[in-house]
Design a protein that fits this description.
Number of strands of chain B: 14
Radius of gyration of chain B: 19 Å
Order of helices and strands of chain A: EEEHHH
Oligomer: heterodimer
Strand content of chain B: 25-35%
Largest sheet of chain A: 3 strands, antiparallel
Distance between the termini of chain B: 55 Å
């Protein structure tokens, strides 16, 4: 299962940082290194695949990576950044 | 005498425009809109009926600001005295008013320009811009940061004290024909290679410090003047990334009693020599 981005979010990855514009609120948001790595992969990756990206990049424990991905996805859902 | 429209601006008048409105369509902003992307003319329709159902009476204050919202990729401008709708991809707009509204047309020109520029690889910035020895310097910051005051102390060409365009490769700074409190003095036509951008702050004395790229992006995002439409902002973000990667951005503090131009001239000359 992948995680399509809500169409109200315009975004680009600039110099390694995912910069998001919430077009409904007019607010901008820059993601941290981990979030910037995951964000462009959301529409085409499952949660386990996203966790593996964190393991490969940051050399962290797979369980920690899985928890980080779950937290990240929960935050995005709470803010309405993922398509329903 | 009828004021001619700029070349590359095609106007269909289902209701005749007043002379005051025709003058707006002959303004530098309208000329910039017409020629900004090349190709077919920009099309403007002046309607006899509202493009969408009018709001309830009293919903918009006659002297209040125009409101923008996006519907199906088109930018709607709503005001008590006029309505307009812009299709950025089709490069066309429609305008409706019950009585002549040069102010409304000027608003439409500004919003249309803010839609057009990102798709042409440029960024409209709420900033003042000047040409110092032929090089473009842009000064940005929130209202009250001193953009117009600073531009008013400059003795050379002031491209704008309200809205400038940065674009091209390498980047150039251009006026938009839109000025703030400086009026005509703050709307000189022209452009120059963009040398640097400055986030303005008031201070007891002059100081200049480089902004790191991430902070520069955050600060500039606050002054990018693009309607909240997905494709426009995706294009604008791409240009912003290119801008911060290729043009230095500084934080500059200054005080009214000591305009910074000589110091800026010296500092910029030294930074060019140092990098040469």
């Amino acid at each position: 299962m992948a995680f399509p981005i809500h169409p109200r979010i315009a975004w680009q990855v600039l110099d390694g940082e995912a910069v998001l514009i919430d077009l409904e609120g007019g607010r901008s948001l820059g993601l941290n290194a981990a979030g910037s790595l995951l964000w462009p992969r959301l529409p085409t990756s499952s949660a386990p695949e996203l966790a593996q990206v964190l393991v490969d990049e940051f050399r962290i424990d797979p369980d920690e990576a899985r928890r980080n991905v779950e937290t990240f996805l929960s935050l995005l859902r709470a803010r309405g950044f993922l398509a329903p | 005498m009828t004021v001619p429209f700029p070349a590359h601006l095609s106007v269909e008048e289902r209701v005749a425009l007043a002379p005051s409105e025709r003058s707006v369509l002959a303004s530098p902003a309208a000329r910039l809109l017409a020629r900004s992307a090349g190709g077919p003319p920009y099309r403007l329709g002046v309607l006899a009926r509202p493009p969408w159902p009018a709001p309830e009476s009293g919903a918009d204050a006659p002297d209040g600001p125009a409101r923008l919202h996006v519907v199906d990729g088109r930018v709607r401008v709503r005001h008590a005295r006029f309505q307009a709708e812009i299709d950025p991809l089709a490069r066309e707009a429609v305008f409706y008013r019950t009585e002549p509204s040069p102010g409304g047309l000027a608003v439409l020109m500004r919003v249309a320009l803010s839609c057009e520029l990102p798709l042409a690889g440029s960024l409209p910035l709420h900033a003042a811009g000047v040409l110092l020895e032929g090089r473009g310097l842009a000064f940005f910051g929130p209202s009250g940061a001193g953009k117009s005051t600073l531009a008013g102390t400059f003795e050379g060409p002031v491209l704008s004290d309200e809205l400038v365009a940065v674009g091209g490769e390498p980047f150039r700074l251009s006026g938009t024909g839109i000025s703030g409190t400086l009026g005509e003095r703050g709307a000189e036509c022209g452009s120059g290679p963009l040398r640097a951008l400055f986030e303005l702050a008031w201070g007891d004395r002059f100081s200049l410090s480089p902004l790191p790229p991430r902070l520069a992006r955050q600060r500039l995002l606050e002054v990018v003047q693009v309607p909240l439409e997905t494709r426009l902002w995706c294009a604008a973000l791409s240009t912003l990334g290119r801008l911060v990667g290729s043009v230095p951005v500084y934080r500059m503090a200054w005080c009214r009693s000591d305009p910074p131009w000589e110091r800026l001239r010296d500092r910029l000359a030294r930074s060019v020599e140092g990098s040469g």
